[in-house]
Amino acid sequence: MSDDPKLDKLKRQIEKAQAEAEPIRVKENEPLNKLGKFFNVGVELVSGVFVGVGCGLLIDWACGTSPWGLISLFILGSIAGMLNVYRALTTKGQPGTKKDTHV
């Protein structure tokens, strides 16, 4: 070890605390509370609509098809947002399991 006895004592205390410490278990894919889950659902819905509207405005601007790109992609974005909300509310996995994110 080192020449300093205080440093050796501190290292032993740290090692003892690490050995006694219980690891924190975090359940994946599970919000910490209901407020977090409701916030997640709101973000899922709004983000789908915003992406649809943004893409619709971009297509209308690029192609000069106003307002058809906005209308059609607003509808598609709303459907995608509702589908994301449905998936967020109905996904029930075993604690500690990960979602399959591979395509």
From the structure above, extract its key features.
103 residues; mainly alpha; elongated; single chain
How would the blueprint of this fold be written?
Blueprint: H1 5-20, H2 34-63, H3 68-90
The major sheet is characterized as: none
Oligomer: single chain
Share in helix? 55-70%
Categorize the overall geometry: elongated
Tally of extended strands? Answer: 0
Structural class: mainly alpha
* Low-confidence region ranges: none
**DSSP helical segment count:** 3
The percentage of residues in β strands lies in under 5%
Radius of gyration: 25 Å
Give, in order, the helices and strands.
HHH
Overall pLDDT level: 82
Distance between the termini: 51 Å
Write a structural description.
The chain has 103 residues and is mostly helical. It has a domain at 33-91. It is built from three helices and no strands. The protein has helices at 5-20, 34-63, 68-90. The chain is elongated and about 80 Å long.
Brief overview:
The protein is mainly alpha-helical and 103 residues long.
